[in-house]
Design goal:
The chain is of the alpha/beta class and 402 residues long. It has 12 helices and 20 strands. A 7-stranded mixed sheet has the order 16-15-14-17-18-20-19, with helices on both faces. A 6-stranded mixed sheet has the order 2-6-5-4-1-3. The protein has a 5-stranded mixed sheet with strand order 7-8-9-10-11. A hairpin with an 8-residue loop joins strand 7 and strand 8. S-adenosyl-L-homocysteine (SAH) binds next to helix 8 and helix 10.
């Protein structure tokens, strides 16, 4: 018996099921597992052994999830300890070098699997870091991760928003509160010179959609003189960007009254922006798009940044209908020559499918339109080449023919 198996619990793969691991994909599904030797507890690090007895890596064991283990390292000899997490956190943060400056004080510091830390998200908003742990392995190493984050220069608080639904699948209870330091009265970030307050305790995800940094900059650059509709506006990200870019009017819609209240406050906080050009509406997007059309409204620029309709490929069909519906109505609302910035953050809908859906929407809307640009997440949201699931956010810039 190989020495590694005598040393403690281990996980053995079925014959032929080591392929994805050899391609450096970090997930081991339950169906690939031939057996578990010993009795590892949830979150324990176990050596992963191929059918041929070869050590393939070391992974965090998660007994209740379909993703039975997530690989920390493909190096069989690397020690997975507090120092390992300090190194991985430092590497992730170093990779964001240059993304934080006086005009940009928000940035994703750790993006899970794509930063070699499955189940770990950390977003920096000024002096506060919001951390989200969503796997048994991440939970096991919580203290080491918090310590590494808290040691970052200029950080006074690490706040934990480990309350995503996926924790239930991992057998973990939700946790929401300060993990280290003191939470400032107000947490905010500056993006492209605009200040946004972040509700770290109750906002969506960790409080702000940092992944849309580049897209907001692009919309800002396109907005001059355009009457704009911002659907799914959340706390006003694209609204403020469009106003800063000289939009003549921005109508912003969201179904969350809390998000809208913060959006209004965010606009007020940026005194240089023309607040009189903004109108806010608390409404369901699907109904509101039809209502606007019935009322004869039209726009020069529409932003559609909906929530994740398809978390996985299994939801793709229903999600496709939802994407098609909103894009169809948005295209109808566009004036000739108008622009549509349309997004999908669903992993289950890839870029090719999304383009087809929007194409179908244009056809049904009777709109002659073309793709004139593409959007993706900013550089602080890397997608490891070995981890296609990381490629979740895509956007198209569409121009309706004049
Ligand atoms: N564009 C935003 C992020 C959008 S997140 C930014 O840059 O910050 C998606 C938003 O859609 C959330 O604010 C959520 O409240 C809203 N939402 C979800 N379902 C909705 C619906 N049916 N109608 C209107 N808004 C909805």
């Amino acid at each position: 018996m190989p020495a590694t198996r005598a040393a403690g619990p281990s996980l053995r793969l079925k014959h032929g099921r080591d392929r994805s691991l050899k391609l450096r994909h970090p997930w081991i599904f339950s169906g690939a597992v031939a057996g578990v030797d010993g009795a590892p507890a949830s979150g324990d690090t176990v050596p992963v052994i191929g059918d041929d007895g070869k050590l393939l890596g070391q992974a965090a064991y998660s007994p209740s999830s379909q993703i039975r283990a997530r690989v920390w390292t493909f190096d069989a000899l690397e020690c997975v300890d507090a120092a390992f997490f300090a190194r991985r956190v430092a590497m992730a943060i170093a990779a964001r070098d240059g993304m934080l400056d006086a005009d940009h004080t928000g940035c994703r510091l750790i993006h899970g699997e794509s930063d070699g830390l499955p189940g770990v998200i950390a977003d920096r908003y000024g002096e506060t870091i919001v951390m989200q742990l969503s796997s048994a392995g991440a939970e096991r190493w919580r203290d080491s991760i918090v310590e590494a984050l808290a040691a970052q220069p200029g950080v006074i608080c690490v706040y934990e928003r480990s309350d995503a639904d996926v924790r239930t699948i991992e057998g973990l209870a939700p946790r929401n509160g300060v993990a280290s330091g003191t939470l400032p009265d107000t947490v905010s970030l500056v993006e492209a010179g605009l200040r946004y307050e972040v509700d770290v305790a109750a906002g969506q995800k960790t409080g702000f959609y940092l992944d849309q940094r580049d897209s907001r900059a692009a919309v800002r650059a396109l907005a001059a003189g355009r009457e704009t509709l911002n659907m799914f506006c959340y706390t006003g990200g694209f609204t403020l960007a469009a106003l800063a870019g000289g939009a003549s009017r921005v109508l912003s819609v969201d179904s969350s009254s809390g998000a809208l209240a913060l959006a209004r406050a965010n606009l007020a906080r940026n005194a240089m922006l023309p607040a009189e050009r903004a109108e806010w509406r608390d409404a369901d997007a699907f109904a509101e798009l039809r209502k606007l059309r019935d009322a004869g409204a039209s726009f020069d620029l529409v932003v559609l940044d909906p929530p994740k309709f398809a978390p996985t490929a299994q939801h793709a069909e229903r999600a496709s209908r939802a994407y098609k519906d909103i894009n169809l109505w948005a295209l109808k609302l566009l004036r000739p020559g108008g622009l549509l910035a349309t997004f999908s953050c669903s992993s289950g809908v890839d870029a090719g499918l999304f383009r087809k859906i929007v194409g179908g929407a244009a056809l049904d809307a009777g709109a002659d339109a073309a793709v004139i640009g593409r959007f993706g997440p900013s550089a602080d949201h890397p997608a490891a080449l070995a981890f296609p699931e990381g490629d979740y956010l895509k956007g198209l810039l569409i121009r309706k023919s004049a």
